[in-house]
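--- STAGE predict ---
source: upstream dedup step, 1 unique chain passed
mode: sequence only
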Amino acid sequence: MSQGTKPLLAPPKQRHGQAGPSQLHANNVPKTVVIDKVLFKFPKDKEFQFPAAVVMQNYVNGYNFKMAHNDTSFGKATWELSYGIDIAKEDWELFQTIGLKLATQPVEIKEPDMLVDLSEERLVSFGLSHKHCTQLYGLLCGVGTLPIPDVSERLIGDKNGPWAVLNDDLRFEQDWELVTADDLLNNKNKWKGVIGYQSWQTYMAATMGCTFQNRLDKPQLAIGTFTVIEVLQKGHPQALLSKWINPKWHLVIEEAGNVERQIRQVINRYDLTKEI
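--- STAGE serialize ---
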């Protein structure tokens, strides 16, 4: 360096995490609150309402996380979800009874910004492919999810209790008890498990008979608490309404022949292990 030449001054070092002038200015400006108004149109068929509830639950409970990681306002706005449901009152009461876990509760939405059409008509437009119903519904609002919802009410199998049967023509033993959905809801710890044709009742039983544990390595570890033996009738797609995440759910396929033999095979394994 020649004599008399002053050295260039380096800018002062900024400490990690310290806000610069522009950040301080931005932080002093009140953020705009953006309210997303979403309406979920449920199917009228109670069986298809369960996968619809799964998708809605995932969307609602994951909304804040999604918006925090997809903020297009660069910190100038906060996002809030306000959502409604188009479903019969008595059908929604069932999900309240079994304790559907939601971060916020639905409200009345008259003019939604987005309509999530989960109706049967919309589902049929997909062609009822080999995919699960929740996968098809999830495409409509950008969520991926499991086949059954997370609920707080639990069915617990009694190893010494009788088997519950939802359909009289599946009652192959006199000590198997013919039950209704209300019987299951009112006596949650009475039976070994339940046997029935694929229906909203078996969907409810598989939902209440499964709990989830949050772990770092397996965020959705499912634990079965109640055995469900579900009979898939001829002509019904095998994957569409599967409850595969529940380890105590067992599918009996009518087209495979001899439904009674298939059911007894599951029960015999239960009698041997007391674990299925």
